[in-house]
């Protein structure tokens, strides 16, 4: 600050205060006519949107007219890097993660709904198209599926479905040969 009426000499020993938001902050004189104040903005909420603060600087010195200067302080949003506020970065990142996560979930659920035999058939089809040697296919024939589903029922009737259908080479789980007995002896029902 300088005194215009006395050949532009610096104004020393002035009382300079900032009144903002109901609080008073005092400026420190760092050199003749130069006053400074560090105004911390960490406690001012500017995460979601910028915050504009209005304040008044009061300048008082003996034998001089007091003056008031109105100021506005614009507290910007915190930036994670230049030009990208943290809040918008978090929103963008969450949206990307949400879209990618939903696409992955959709694809996994879609693949889980496809029966195994269809997957095996597709694998064989791919081998045929690429002219590779086809390994023994895990896909069962209709007759093999019938034996698997109804073979035990036919065995209970003391018949073999394999013989009726003419299937020779099928591995079935063995029928239980032992009957359960109680600890006291005798058959158990």
Descriptors:
4 helices; alpha+beta; 4-stranded antiparallel β-sheet; 189 residues; single chain; transmembrane; membrane; two-stranded antiparallel sheet; rod-shaped; transmembrane helix
Q: How would you characterize this protein structure?
A:
It is a single chain. The chain has 189 residues and is α+β, with helices and mostly antiparallel strands. Among the domains are: 2-77; 84-129. It contains four helices and ten strands. It has helices at 86-112, 116-129, 142-156, 161-165, and strands at residues 2-3, 9-10, 15-20, 23-26, 28-31, 34-36, 51-60, 67-75, 79-81, 84-85. The strands form four sheets. Strands 4-3-7-8 form a four-stranded antiparallel β-sheet, with no helix packed on it. Strands 1-2 form a two-stranded antiparallel sheet. The chain crosses the membrane at residues 87-109. Keywords: Membrane, Transmembrane, Transmembrane helix.
């Amino acid at each position: 600050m300088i005194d215009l009426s006395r050949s532009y000499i610096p104004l020393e020993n002035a009382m300079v205060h900032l009144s903002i938001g109901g609080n008073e902050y005092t400026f420190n004189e760092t050199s003749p006519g130069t006053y400074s104040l560090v105004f911390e903005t960490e406690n001012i909420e500017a995460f979601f949107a910028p915050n504009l603060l209005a304040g008044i600087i009061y300048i008082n010195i003996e034998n001089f007219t007091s003056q008031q200067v109105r100021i506005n302080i614009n507290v910007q949003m915190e930036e994670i890097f230049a030009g990208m506020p943290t809040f918008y970065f978090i929103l963008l990142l969450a949206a990307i993660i949400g879209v990618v996560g939903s696409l992955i979930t959709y694809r996994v659920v879609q693949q889980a709904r496809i029966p195994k035999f269809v997957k095996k058939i597709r694998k064989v089809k791919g081998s045929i198209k690429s002219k590779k040697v086809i390994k023994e296919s895990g896909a069962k024939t209709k007759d093999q599926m019938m034996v698997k589903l109804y073979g035990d029922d036919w065995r209970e009737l003391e018949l073999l479905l394999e013989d009726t259908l003419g299937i020779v080479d099928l591995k079935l789980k063995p029928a239980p040969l032992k009957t359960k007995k109680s600890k006291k002896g005798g058959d158990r029902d």
